[in-house]
């Protein structure tokens, strides 16, 4: 059965639906953390907190998935008015344990069995207001009596309620496998994380290299995970749970995009530095390109700034990135770039440039662009030879891929290797190389090649013996 995609961002109206209050756009996990920190207590039993989080997530997803407010002509997803929706206090502090539990649960939600839509999970505090749904205070004694979050949920919403676990975050993000990866784990999910961590290590040399991406979660992998978690403010337990999984993928995407920008030849010194006028959604031109470059370079360093297309068009993705930056700097969250936001962006950008210069990032491994035609059995030519070279190198670390003869012929063995690659990386398994498969092979080849490189002074990933 199909499941909704968890939104990357949610737009909150800071007032009743028809009021003239401001809108703010925040990441979906940040929104849930804020709501939970505003509505419940961090001292409550963990199972009670989880039950409340599931109700809050489902309520918000129901609003988003049903397009409740946009269908009425509003330009937001939800309000912070508790007469209509959930409590949200802009820029409030977040409780640490609520933040941790939200990272684990943000893409789990409730629904009735046999349905797709997230449950409109009504709830109330259970003291000043009572209702037919979940009682927030009522979850506490139930948890103290030993009930799990799932049992608490069913106590209020009925046995027909089920929990959808690990709903997709977006079409392009590999979903968490559902099982925590730790010392001794085996499989493709481990190998993917090893590959990503090695690539991230080029930008963050404190992360030790993993000598071989074998798919076995060994001590080298555990050490790399712990270092990653320390850098990105996660609990350094050396275990890849849901929060660590998605954070690794996010940072991998960010540093890969950063290298792509460098390869495009946009020099730091050539970018305009002076504010030339306000920019907002709908703006176009060279100044917008510069803004987008700033945001892309900052994305690995500022939480929730997602890479954007440097196309010179100030669209919704650029606005969301600006909002994330403004929020990180305590600036008014307008989504527009005035002189104050521009100057703050440029200052942060220069700080990132200094950091990157100090860390001596390795040059990106260059790969050939897609040749423009689908490659299949029987084809012969230089593009086939190139892609077979990439697959042969990848096969040194992904042992399911058969080694290929160094020739320009796309034979049946090549088809088998391509099909296996497509299976491993969740692509359509047709044994042909279209643009998506070509780019994926090139990306993995680049990441594997670069992952084996070492920066000066960087731990090599293995013990040095006499």
Please give a quick description of this structure.
This protein is mainly alpha-helical and 466 residues long. It has helices spanning 28-39, 46-66, 96-105, 139-144, 149-157, 188-201, 219-231, 242-263, 286-298, 316-328, 339-359, 382-395, 412-424, 435-451, and strands at 9-13, 23-27, 78-79, 109-112, 123-124, 134-135, 161-164.
What does this 3D model show about the protein?
The chain folds into four domains: 156 residues, no CATH class; 75 residues, Orthogonal Bundle (Muramoyl-pentapeptide Carboxypeptidase, domain 1), CATH 1.10.101; 96 residues, Orthogonal Bundle (Muramoyl-pentapeptide Carboxypeptidase, domain 1); 70 residues, no CATH class. It is 42% helix and 5% strand. A three-stranded mixed beta sheet has the order 2-1-3. A two-stranded antiparallel sheet has the order 4-7. A two-stranded parallel sheet has the order 5-6. The longest helix has 22 residues.
Q: Keywords, please?
A:
466 residues, mainly alpha, Muramoyl-pentapeptide Carboxypeptidase, domain 1, 4 domains, 3-stranded mixed β-sheet, two-stranded antiparallel sheet, disordered C terminus
Measured between the Cα atoms of the first and last residue, the distance is: 58 Å
Beta-strand content bin: 5-15%
Order of helices and strands: EEHHEHEEEHHEHHHHHHHHH
Radius of gyration: 24 Å
Report the total helices. 14
Q: How is the topology of this model organized?
A:
Blueprint (H helix, E strand, L loop, with lengths): L8 E5 L9 E5 H12 L6 H21 L11 E2 L16 H10 L3 E4 L10 E2 L9 E2 L3 H6 L4 H9 L3 E4 L23 H14 L17 H13 L10 H22 L22 H13 L17 H13 L10 H21 L22 H14 L16 H13 L10 H17 L15
Parallel strand pairs: 1-3, 5-6
Antiparallel strand pairs: 1-2, 4-7
């Amino acid at each position: 059965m199909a499941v909704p995609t968890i939104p990357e961002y949610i737009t909150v109206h800071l007032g009743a639906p028809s009021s003239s209050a401001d809108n703010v756009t925040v990441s979906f996990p940040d929104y849930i953390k804020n709501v939970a920190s505003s509505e419940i207590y961090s001292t409550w039993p963990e199972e009670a907190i989880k039950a409340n989080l599931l109700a809050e997530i489902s309520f918000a997803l129901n609003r988003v998935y049903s397009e409740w407010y946009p269908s009425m002509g509003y330009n937001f997803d939800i309000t912070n008015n508790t007469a209509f929706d959930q409590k949200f206090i802009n820029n409030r502090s977040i409780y640490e344990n609520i933040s941790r539990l939200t990272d684990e649960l943000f893409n789990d939600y409730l629904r009735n069995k046999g349905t797709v839509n997230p449950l409109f999970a009504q709830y109330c505090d259970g003291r000043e207001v009572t209702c037919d749904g979940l009682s927030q205070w009522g979850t506490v004694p139930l948890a103290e009596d030993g009930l799990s979050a799932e049992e608490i949920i069913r106590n209020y919403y009925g046995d027909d309620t089920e929990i959808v676990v690990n709903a997709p975050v977006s079409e392009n993000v590999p979903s968490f496998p559902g099982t925590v990866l730790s010392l001794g784990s085996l499989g493709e999910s481990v190998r993917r994380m090893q590959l990503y961590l090695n690539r991230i290590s080029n930008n963050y040399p404190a992360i030790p290299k993993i000598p071989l991406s074998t798919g076995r979660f060994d001590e080298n992998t555990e050490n790399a995970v712990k270092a990653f978690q320390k850098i990105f403010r996660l609990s350094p337990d050396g275990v890849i749970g849901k929060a660590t999984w998605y954070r690794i993928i996010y940072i991998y995407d960010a540093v890969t995009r950063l290298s792509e920008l460098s390869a495009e030849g946009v020099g730091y010194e050539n970018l305009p530095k002076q504010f030339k006028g306000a920019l907002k959604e709908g703006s176009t031109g060279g100044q917008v390109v510069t803004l987008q470059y700033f945001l892309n370079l900052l994305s690995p360093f500022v939480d929730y700034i997602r890479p954007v297309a440097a196309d010179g068009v100030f669209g919704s993705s650029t606005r969301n990135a600006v909002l994330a930056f403004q929020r990180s700097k305590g600036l008014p969250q307008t989504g527009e770039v005035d002189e104050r936001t521009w100057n703050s962006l440029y200052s942060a950008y220069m700080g990132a440039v200094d950091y990157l210069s100090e860390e001596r990032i390795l040059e990106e491994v260059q790969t050939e662009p897609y040749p423009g035609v689908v490659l299949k059995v029987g084809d012969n030519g230089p593009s086939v030879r190139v892609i077979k070279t990439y697959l042969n190198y990848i096969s040194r670390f992904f042992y399911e891929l058969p080694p290929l003869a160094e020739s320009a012929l796309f034979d049946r063995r090549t088809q088998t290797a391509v099909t296996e690659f497509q299976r491993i990386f969740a692509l359509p398994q047709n044994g042909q190389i279209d643009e998506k498969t070509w780019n994926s092979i090139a990306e993995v080849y680049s990441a594997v090649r670069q992952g084996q490189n070492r920066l000066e002074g960087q731990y090599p990933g293995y013990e040095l013996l006499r």
